[in-house]
């Protein structure tokens, strides 16, 4: 590696460390989340406590809107991927659109947002 490139990498690392940016992997917590699989836009803009219907949630998801899990306490959990590159999770939760579920996985919280890497998901009656 040439000296100029090495110096540039060192400066970049120094700036990251000085800025306090956390470059380490975020810590998640193993949890079970119970709630409805609902379109994210409806959960946020219409303040719904549960989906209008499964068909409605599926239509929105097919149009590209992310599905989320809306917990009974109103917390919205975004199904996320922990792989690189990250992959959308609509295919994973689509079979449960409009249903109440129990999702087990790792929950991450950042800036008021909640994400869950789903390990197991099942409908709740």
Task: Give a short overview.
This protein has 125 residues and is an alpha+beta fold. Helix content is 29%, strand content 34%.
Describe what you observe in this structure.
The protein is built from 4 helices and 5 strands. With 125 residues, it is α+β, with helices and mostly antiparallel strands. It has a single domain (25-123), classed as OB fold (Dihydrolipoamide Acetyltransferase, E2P) (Beta Barrel). The chain has a 5-stranded mixed barrel. A hairpin with a 2-residue loop joins strand 4 (100-110) and strand 5. The longest helix is centred in the N-terminal third of the chain and has 17 residues, at 3-19. The protein starts with a helix and ends with a strand. Mean pLDDT is 84; it is low at 5-24.
Average the pLDDT over all residues and give the rounded result: 84
| CATH class assignment | Mainly Beta
CATH topology: OB fold (Dihydrolipoamide Acetyltransferase, E2P)
Q: Summarize the helix and strand pattern as letters.
A: HEHHEEHEE
Shape: globular
The main pleated sheet reads as: 5 strands, mixed, barrel
Task: List the strand order in the largest sheet.
Answer: 1-2-3-5-4
CATH architecture: Beta Barrel
Radius of gyration based on Cα positions? 19 Å
- Our estimate of the beta-strand percent is 25-35%
Tell me the distance between the termini. Answer: 61 Å
By helix and strand content, what is the structural category?
Answer: alpha+beta
């Amino acid at each position: 590696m040439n000296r100029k490139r090495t110096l540039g990498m060192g400066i970049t690392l120094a700036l990251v460390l000085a800025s306090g940016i956390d470059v380490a992997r975020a810590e998640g917590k193993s949890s079970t989340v119970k709630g409805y699989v609902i379109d994210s836009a409806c959960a946020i803009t219409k303040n719904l406590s549960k989906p209008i219907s499964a068909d409605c949630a599926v239509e929105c998801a097919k149009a590209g809107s992310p599905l989320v899990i809306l917990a009974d306490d109103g917390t919205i959990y975004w199904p996320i991927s922990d792989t690189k590159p990250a992959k959308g999770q609509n295919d994973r939760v689509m079979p449960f659109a409009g249903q109440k579920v129990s999702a087990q996985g790792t929950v991450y919280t950042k800036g008021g947002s909640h994400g869950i890497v789903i390990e197991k998901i099942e409908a709740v009656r």
